[in-house]
Amino acid sequence: MANSPRARFGHRYFKDWGASLERLWPGLLPGLLVALAGGALGYWLNSGAVVALSLMLAVLVVLLWRQHLQVRDSEAALQASEQRFLRLFDQAAVGINLTDTRTGRFERVNQRFCDIVGYPMQELLQLDFARISHPDELAQDLAQMRRLHAGEISEFRMEKRYFHKSGREIWVDLSVSALWEQGATPDYHVAVVQDITQRKQMEQALRESESRLRMVLQRLPVGVCLLEADGRLSYRNEEFVRISGYTEQEVPTLAAWWEHAYPDLAQRAHYQELWQQLAHVAATSDGIIAGAEYLIHCKDGRQRPVEVTGVPLEERMLVSMLDLSERRAAAEEIHNLAFYDLLTQLPNRRLLRDRLQQALVTASRHGALGALLLLDIDDFKTINETKGHEKGDALLRQVAQRLREVVRADDTLARLGGDEFAVLLEDLGDTASEAAACSGEVGEKILAALRKPFDLDGEMHHSSISMGITVFSGQDAAETVNELLKRADLAMYQAKAAGRDTLCFYEPAMQASVTARAALEADMRSALADGQFVLYYQPQWERERIVGAEALLRWLHPRDGFVSPAQFIPLAEQSGLIVPLGTWVLQQACAQLVRWAQEPALAQLTLAVNVSPRQFRQTDFVAQVLAALASHGTDPRRLKLELTEGLLLEDTEATIAKMGELKRYGVGFALDDFGTGYSSLAYLKRLPFDQLKIDQSFVRDVLTDPNDAAIARTIVALGASLGLSVMAEGVESEAQRAFLERHQCHSWQGYLLGRPMPVQDFEHTVRAQVQAQQGPERGADFSI
Ligand SMILES: Nc1nc2c(ncn2[C@@H]2O[C@H](COP(=O)(O)O[C@H]3[C@@H](O)[C@H](n4cnc5c(=O)[nH]c(N)nc54)O[C@@H]3COP(=O)(O)O)[C@@H](O)[C@H]2O)c(=O)[nH]1
Fold this sequence. Notes:
By secondary structure, the protein is an alpha+beta fold. 52% of the residues lie in helices and 21% in strands.
């Protein structure tokens, strides 16, 4: 303790007091003695000078005494001050430590410092400050300390970390002052330590939240920049730079922004005015500058639509910028997809309907008539199927292009789907005849333009269209969009029926025929359910005997009587009713064959059944035929299916597979109407046919038209070379039969040999023939 700083503090003050006494005492004591001696001598000598001298000495003594008293008082004050200092040291609200500058050891610490670092005082006094300092700030601390020790500085201040006894880090604010005792270098330093851990934690939290905020701002899918009151753009995020392309160096201020984003002065003035107007509105409400659309000129030279909003942040403004270009492009794409045809880029049906609706309104308002032209490429299906879809698409694109070249820019041209196009013409005059003349003229131009050959990948292709035209005035309530489309469609079908490559105007009579067709279709459905259909049988001859029959459908309508299959079969095909109807025919035919099988005279007969393309294309067609055969126990070899050439053009592989499968069961196949379709030797060779049927159109004029005669002869020769039998249809006269026989065609069917007849009549005919042939020998008789 004698060596403790506290002892040394006290000792220093006492030592100073003693020193002053030591300094005063030698003067005071002789003074007293001189005053006493002088007084006595004066008294004795009665000398005034001696008295005066004594008095002077006495004054001197008094003065010296007073000085002594003063020294004593100041010593006491010093002591009191030291006491106060020590109390202050111990009780201070801040941590204080007195440290040996050379060793770094704590010489004295107050309680608060102990509390801050969590050590008991005695333990702390065994440590040096480096021991409890965080290494990250220690180097700086030591460097400052060295400067302090070298006398370069008398004090320093820093923020550093101590390790609390528990191990946690404590941030402190450290104010260190040198303490000189003697000599030029300080022996001790006093450190005033304030615990700032909480503040540091708050700062850290603030920093973290700021950095999080920056990160969020930086990654926001919206462009953000901070506009300072002095016009500086103090911050901008990545998206802001991505959208505009302008970095801080290029566009540091709002003024620079306006210049770069709007190089065009008029445009700049327009958008500045918009911004100012919105800012003015904002100033009178919540301060938020409402979002508005701006078209900015970006660094890459492109113009981008953006939505800009401003939110005040104290003195600054947070400006957000949303890139609308993608949204715009998406909206445009959606619009395109919704209203335009992808292949040709022409307006689609939806857009045409819209324009037609507007055209009706305009026509009714202005009294100027318009016309809707509907056109369909003839035989497009065949082109698509024979030349492939790519060429089909190429044709559609070229048709679209030619149509664009023919019609005026303000006419609406549309692709309605498939091979169907439409042209909407407006303002065609104020009378129906004027409008019809104008639209007819445009229609003829279109027909002519589309007659010219198309180049499909180097292959020249000739095409034609059928067109239906309907004129509208907008005055008639019946003229709705649907109705006009229906009328043009009817007229177009009329053009197709009229031989294609032509145009037809809509006439009300067409409507009547459509209505009749709709009624027929409805009737047909109930006819099937009500059993109004029957099969007639037309004999098929081979040389002088009937070898079978063709089953031909008949409809005995309860009101209308006999309805020709030529009338209802195409309609059944279109409506899909042919499928149940065909199934019914197959069932009837199979049942009939079984009945014939039980009678020797009829047992060898075959029965030919017409199969429509739609029926054949049913995926379960093979299963249907086999089921019909199986359900009746029919011999498949007695059934012959007649297919038409048109069927063979589509999906040949599937056709071969289906035919092959049925062929394996013994079912026969005849190619009906041979010569009228797209006869191709290539498919004939691959398809498992048993018979070719010469179409009756060639047989009809076989005696008079050398071409038909040549065709008939060629078909016979072809059949022979392919190993197929050849049957002639529509043989009506003996001369025709004889001609065919002379040319090696020995199978015939036609009115000469028997008309289609009810089953009983047919069976009767066959029985009679068998009986006759079993009787006495006689020449061939083809009459029945
Ligand atoms: N898918 C199905 N189609 C069928 C079915 N039944 C008939 N049809 C087809 O309907 C078309 C018209 O048939 P139809 O009126 O019965 O005419 C056939 C014969 O009556 C007729 N024919 C026969 N011989 C002569 C003749 O000497 N002169 C003449 N003018 N006509 C004659 O020919 C038709 C048979 O043609 P085809 O089928 O091509 O052999 C017709 O296309 C039938 O195919 C059915 O059940 N399913």
